[in-house]
Amino acid sequence: MPVTEQDVMSALKSCYDPEIPVNIVDLGLIYGVNFAPAPDDKQDVSVDMTLTAQGCPEHVNISMQVKSRLEQLPGIRNAAVNVVWTPAWTPERLSPDARKQLGIE
Known about the structure:
CATH superfamily: Fe-S cluster assembly (FSCA)
Strand content: 15-25%
Distance between the termini: 39 Å
Strand order of the largest sheet: 1-2-3
Number of helices: 3
CATH class: Alpha Beta
């Protein structure tokens, strides 16, 4: 059974920006998920994601965390993380759960 975008998003809910106690999915940092077929009925996955600020000192650690987590999924051969800056992240991207966790609502 191929891995789906929903599988990827569920897995990424275990990844956090160490400076913010909310997972990267609820922070709205994931912009896109793309799949490509790979040998042995596996898939390669690439994730377009951003960070809350361009100067984020944790960008390498977060990217490595995402790659590692995705490569643990059965059916994924390789994962790649593309950090993008367009569109820029804004607090409007926060999920309702993230807003509650951060005390915004």
